[in-house]
Structure formats: structure tokens, C-alpha cells
Known about the structure:
This protein has 264 residues and is of the alpha+beta class. The chain folds into two domains: 3-107 and 257-262, Aminopeptidase (3-Layer(aba) Sandwich); 111-254, Gcn5-related N-acetyltransferase (GNAT) (Aminopeptidase, 3-Layer(aba) Sandwich), CATH 3.40.630. The protein has eight helices and twelve strands. The chain has helices at 3-19, 59-72, 91-97, 113-117, 135-149, 154-166, 213-227, 241-248, and strands at residues 29-32, 36-40, 48-52, 77-83, 101-102, 106-112, 127-132, 171-178, 181-190, 196-204, 232-237, 251-262. Strands 1, 2, 3, 4, 5, 6, 7, 8, 9, 10, 11 and 12 form a twelve-stranded mixed sheet that branches. A hairpin with a 2-residue loop joins strand 8 (171-178) and strand 9.
Amino acid sequence: MDHEELLKVRAAYDARMRRGAEPDAAQARVERTAAVVRQTVPGLGWNGVLWSDLDEETADAEIAAQVAHFAGLGATEFEWKLYDHDRPADLGARLRAAGFVPEPPETLMVGRTAELAGLPVAPPEGITLRVVTDEAGVDLMMDVHARAFGTERPQIREQMLSLLRERPDSLAAVVAMAGETPVSAARMEMRPGTPFAGLWGGGTDPRWRGRGIYRLLVAHRARVAAELGIPYLQVDASADSRPILERLGFAVLGVTTPYVWSGR
């Protein structure tokens, strides 16, 4: 993609996936004020700010307002998802001053679905793909993620179960199996009428890395998105994933950093 196309795609991403965000789980609620778009969810789930329109005069007061909002709901933490083109330029420093802690930055990347769906990828020897449609499949994914990322993810488990129950057409998840053992897993989330499908949670057991399984899961989800007529795939890529995705043809739209406020 050339620079002009990337700017158009980024503007579309901001408009459709941030300002026009939809809840990522059946029990979640997206709220819009004049300055922010945020998601709130009871119990397990993702609480946070998805988009903001701030300047040097309004930023600090709005940060304080969002802290008060989520604290008032009893949330133990929430995330302010900051993009490097958000205003004001020092918004990250203002969030830190308000008690937010930045997590490792991720690279916002996008690829054309049609091109990625045509990748010549064959499963490595001994690997089969299992499409996730039920709780047993979700638990296989959580088993892989615990080994791949070194942490349990109960919020993701609850989100996936919610989507499978209430909005199954918005989720496509898959597990790579070596016999009866899950070794890699990933999911794709889709919003009706939007031009982006988000690739999330791609993780491989360290003992199985370097065999092309991650690439296989990207191609599988691209084919699903292509069949649904979704033109772009979007990824918040880790430092490990970025070079793989660049080799596959993904382009960089920017950098996003999760800033987390904890009330504990």
C-alpha cells in the first residue's frame, strides 16, 4: 500500500472501528460522549476508552472524568487504548501522570484480505486445524494461550463464550492440533457492515514455534474473511508477530499502546 492508501485506510479504521465501535461481547455496552467512545462491561470483560477527541485544554479533565466513571462502576481496572496519531501529542504523558501504566506498545497493521487468502500455505506435518464452535474448543484455546503467553486469560474465555452463545457470526476461532494436543490458536472478530476483521490472540506453544503454524492460522482466517467479503484484516501486532506479518504483506498504520488504570 502506498502512503495515500494507508492514510485512507487509517481514517476508515478510526471512523468504523473506534468512533463507530460496537460492543465486543453480548453483555458489553459502548457509550459515546462528546469527547470519548468507551466500552463498559459487568463482570469479566474489557473496559476501556477506544477513541478520544482531546486537546491541551481538555485532556486532563477528560482523563479525570473517565477515571471517575469507571471507578464509580466498581471496575478494578480499565484501559485507555492510545494511538500514536491521537491528540494531544503528550496524551501518553498525561495518562501516566494520572496513574495509568503503559503496557508494551503494539503495531497497528493491516492487510488486504484477498491477497492474504491466496497465500500458498500447507499445514506442517502432523498438524490439523479444529474450528472452535463450543466450550470445549474455547478451553483448548485457553490451554494453548496459557503456554504461549504464560498467563491465564479468563476475560478472553468469557468473551468468546458470550460471542459463541449470542453472536456466533461475529467470531471465527481455530486451534492447531498435533494429534490430541493443542499447540497454537487464534481468533478473528468481525463487525457487520465494517471493512475490517480483527485478528486476535495468535499464540503458539514455544515448543512448536518456527514451523509456520502462525502463518497457517493467518491464512485460514483470511480465507474466512474473504468468503464474507471483508476487504481488510487488522492486527495489533507484538514485536514477535510484526516481522512475520510484514513478510506476509501486512502494512503498518501506526502504533498503539495500552494504558491501564488500576483501582486496586
